[in-house]
Design goal:
Elements lengths: L1 E11 L2 E10 L2 E6 L4 H9 L2 E4 L4 E4 L1 E6 L4 E2 L2 E2 L4 H10 L2 E9 L6 H12 L6 E7 L5 H12 L4 E5 L10 H14 L2 E5 L3 H13 L6 H5 L3 H18 L3 E3 L5 H12 L4 E5 L1 H5 L2 H4 L21 H10 L4 E2 L32 H10 L5 H15 L17 E11 L18 E11 L2 E5 L2 E2 L18
Bound molecules: N-(aminocarbonyl)-beta-alanine and zinc ion (2 copies).
């Protein structure tokens, strides 16, 4: 099957050119100038031709941070691999990297098997896994080597959530030493959870139970402090470090100074930290619960620093940390006690569109958009050039994006399995029109035609920035 995408502006991380792109089977064959002889020959041999005039043609999005059906906070995130990847496909994301979890007292292998069983046969888009290490011990350290060989080349540790996922500095150092031997990347949830738990207990004792206290008890200074500590531990161990869901300027400053001194330190931020703020957490009644995630959404003054970080390259990736909980029956668990509100927000469907608003507002350029949402995540997590690229031989994961369309985000029209949207009523410019995954159409001019089970497990390599 040969498919030609004709007349579009082909955008990748290195630039944007007018061009025609040929797909053969699951792969991209090449991009040539529109109107060239090669293009005419491709057109006469093509089974299907897609007109991309006045549209952008870009590599499919890679969301490197999702939590489908994750047990957390006495509940389970509301999207399954089926519903979550269905929503991802609508938003132009053709690869997700989810977090398999080692439950305390079990092995990493058991966590991998459990998450593989949840995902296998259910996904509309390709998927890989990182591994959350909640029990650093001799066995799990040995298993890290086996998992790297199996394509799980990144491990998340937590400085937050004592008693759940939390690891001590000593445990973190041990995991980092292992990563410096086997080439894995350590991903860090950098918030000082021990100090935060004291602040939470003090707030509750004062009767401060509303959702806004979630933000006030997790000050940005404690994200900056934990980020600093994580960097120093990684420096001692000699391992690469990737800070997940960076939300605060204090944390960004630590990342900048580490990168300026040449350390292999990387960071991602998420749309919620670029578009939402503590004003949302303080919405009247219990509505602020819809915005509870950790780290918390910050005062809006942090946003311009984050956009600057995306521009300069100090922030490498935009992922969603998609971890949705319905308001009814899930977020409501925390009425009268903000610490019982399950932490996490929906987002997998709107990442590409939201970050495109940064192009419109001239915060970032068109190629930087593609780099942040597709190419750099592919390189960071060992998927390039199979993913995140339009080069010949790459998987034909493609998005035809209409920059002249506009849309209004709403829970009434989104495809995530969650009963609210954090961006309800937000009018945005640009829309995903057509999506291919390995040459198969998932979305054609807005009509879904994907297939459950099409998504395959991706065995990932090591971080390609090291
Ligand atoms: O609030 C959040 N971020 N929930 C998901 C789990 C995590 O820490 O990434
Ligand atoms: Zn986290
Ligand atoms: Zn997360």
């Amino acid at each position: 099957m040969k498919q030609l995408i004709k007349g579009g502006t082909v955008v990748d991380a290195s630039g944007a050119v007018p061009g025609d792109l040929l797909i053969e089977g699951e792969k991209i064959v090449g991009v040539v100038q529109t109107g060239s002889d090669t293009s005419a020959a491709w057109e006469s041999g093509a089974d299907r031709v897609f007109d991309a005039s006045r549209k952008y043609v870009l590599p499919g999005g890679i969301d490197a941070h999702t939590h489908m059906e994750m047990p957390f906070g006495g509940s389970q995130s509301a999207d399954t691999f089926e519903t979550g990847t269905f929503a991802a496909a609508h938003g132009g994301t053709t690869t997700i990297i989810d977090f398999a979890i080692q439950a305390r007292g079990t092995s990493l292998g058991e966590g991998f098997d459990t998450w593989s069983a949840k995902a296998a046969g259910n996904c509309y888009v390709d998927y890989g896994f990182h591994m959350i290490v909640s029990d650093v011990n001799e066995q799990s350290l040995k298993e890290m080597d086996l998992l790297v060989d199996a394509g799980i080349s990144s491990f998340k540790l937590f400085m937050a959530y004592p008693g759940v996922f939390y690891s001590t500095d000593g445990e973190i150092l041990l995991a980092m030493q292992k990563a410096s031997e086997n080439g894995a990347t350590i991903m860090m949830h950098a918030e000082n959870g021990i100090a935060i738990d004291v602040l939470v207990a003090q707030a509750l004792a004062r009767g401060e139970t509303d959702p806004r206290y979630h933000g006030l008890t997790r000050p940005s200074i404690l994200e900056g402090e934990a980020t600093h500590r994580a960097i120093q531990l990684a420096r001692v161990a000699g391992s690469p470090l990737y800070i997940v869901h960076l939300s605060a300027k204090e944390a960004l400053e630590e990342v900048i100074s580490a990168r300026d001194s040449g350390l292999p330190v990387f960071a991602e931020t998420c749309p919620q930290y670029l578009f939402l703020s503590d004003d949302d957490l303080a919405r009247p009644g219990f509505d602020g619960a819809k915005y509870v995630c950790s780290p918390p959404v910050r005062p809006s003054s942090h946003q311009m620093d984050l956009w600057r970080g995306l521009r300069t390259g100090d922030l490498s990736v935009v992922a969603t940390d998609h971890c949705p909980f319905c308001f009814a029956g899930q977020k409501e668990l925390g009425r009268g006690d903000f610490s019982k509100i399950p932490n996490g927000l929906p987002g997998v469907e709107h990442r590409m569109d939201l970050i495109y608003q940064g192009v419109i507002r001239k915060e970032i350029g068109l190629s930087r958009w593609v780099d942040l949402v597709s190419t750099t995540p592919a390189k960071m997590f060992g998927l390039f050039p199979q993913k995140g690229s339009l080069a010949p031989g790459a998987d034909a994961d493609l998005v035809i994006y209409d920059p002249s369309a506009s849309q209004t985000i709403s829970a009434a029209t989104h495809h995530m399995n969650v009963d609210y949207s954090t961006y309800e009523g937000m009018r945005i410019q640009g829309k995903v029109e057509t999506v291919f995954s390995r040459g198969e159409l998932l979305l054609e001019e807005g009509h879904f035609c994907g297939r459950k089970g099409h998504g395959s497990f991706l065995k990932r390599g090591l971080n390609q920035f090291i």
